[in-house]
Amino acid sequence: MSKKAFEFNFDGLVGPTHNYAGLSHGNVASTANANLVARPKEAAKQGLAKMKALHDMGLKQGVLAPMERPDVHTLRKLGFTGSDAQVIIKASKQAPKVLAACSSASSMWTANACTMAPSSDTGDGKAHFTPANLANKFHRSIEHATTGRILQAMFKDDKHFAHHPALPMGDHFGDEGAANHTRFVDINADKGYGKKGLHFFVYGKHAFDSSKPAPHKYPARQSFEASQAISRLHQLDMDNTVFAQQNPHVIDKGVFHNDVIAVGNGNVLFAHQKAFLNQMQVYTDLEQAFDGEEFHVVEVGANDVPVEDAVKSYLFNSQLITMDNGDMAIIAPGECETTPSVKEYLDWLVEQDTPIKEVKIFDVKQSMQNGGGPACLRQRVVLNETEIDAMNPNVLMSDKLFGELNTWVDKHYRDTLEEDDLADPSLLTESRTALDELTQILNLGSVYPFQLD
């Protein structure tokens, strides 16, 4: 029997090596802003400010720790030898782009950290977590082992939580996590988010069937086969699961994840007109599988907001949240105000008869310039009251934690960082010192490779 449950947003803490190396082919903002001067301290504080604001609005908010970077352990697997400092110096001279990849702070985008299924939806009645393998991008494919350890340190009681390893590596089972997964549920029911939900998996291609549609310019990062595998691992009821293919034409316009073209919450799907193949059938499938009074589709027309403007503004990489009064609000990046078609649309939308009644703008420019908006920065986790009592409480946002983490950032982060700075071995020392202290603040134990060696 399902219990009353609540949705938590776990935002990724921006890591000390935040930089713009332009590593993500298919992500227009990432490649367009390559070689800009990054501001790690400012980026971390922008992220923390968003977390605190949502906490103050009454949402349940948590923090997900970043990766150890530069990743010297991966560099050693690639043949660089000597002390840690020597490994970094050799890599900077012989393969600077490899060093940049091993220094990426991309784990800030925790929508890609994992896929999660609440205990109300799973066959064994446990909350399930599977870290994403992120196989399409080398700099992200090296995250999942540490991500898994961090998740296990946050949700460690195996009576309530089930943790799976990432799917096998390789293009056929490319898995990008919750950026291509949405759970819908009738949150007006007595159990809140604890009622059995509808799982919506969006994929970019069929990896084992080349006759199916696929993008040509940019890669489809999520495969149908990976989405199926996650649904099996999490023991989901197929009557409450819908699979849909992303429109390959919008992938080729820079929509590298579903959460760049659609976002959902509760009983609402907010999507662009060009988001999916066979779009009307997708809507029908969702409406039929949804267990609740009414399923709402709020579709944005291509004439109102062209796909290019949706990508530029990250309109759909906003968070869609339910406020205390039951209305929904869009947590949007500042770029939605500076993109005329998007601003005009949002001003119009909040006056319409839909559940979305408010737009709240947040400055996450440091993340946006690297290709991630408010929705990229958060992983949604649904927990019931028993599971909340069983989790690590130190990772939950509070006035105290907000102050501690801002002090921690001030102490350890650089004001600016350029790609050439990654060759400085002292950056590794600074990062490890910061992360060692962070694991104590969040009570994570030893989760990083340098702590385990």
UniProtKB/TrEMBL annotation:
The keyword Isomerase does not apply. It catalyses: N(2)-succinyl-L-arginine + 2 H2O + 2 H(+) = N(2)-succinyl-L-ornithine + 2 NH4(+) + CO2. It is an enzyme of class 3 (hydrolase). It holds the Pfam family AstB. Its EC number is 3.5.3.23. Keywords: Arginine metabolism, Hydrolase. Substrate binds at residues 21-30, 112, 139-140, 221, 259, 370. Pathway: Amino-acid degradation; L-arginine degradation via AST pathway; L-glutamate and succinate from L-arginine: step 2/5. InterPro entries: AstB_sf (IPR037031), SuccinylArg_d-Hdrlase_AstB (IPR007079). The active site is at E176, H257, C376 (nucleophile). Belongs to the succinylarginine dihydrolase family. Homodimer. Catalyzes the hydrolysis of N(2)-succinylarginine into N(2)-succinylornithine, ammonia and CO(2). NCBIfam families: arg_catab_astB, PRK13281.1. This is N-succinylarginine dihydrolase. The lineage of its organism: Bacteria, Pseudomonadati, Pseudomonadota, Gammaproteobacteria, Kangiellales.
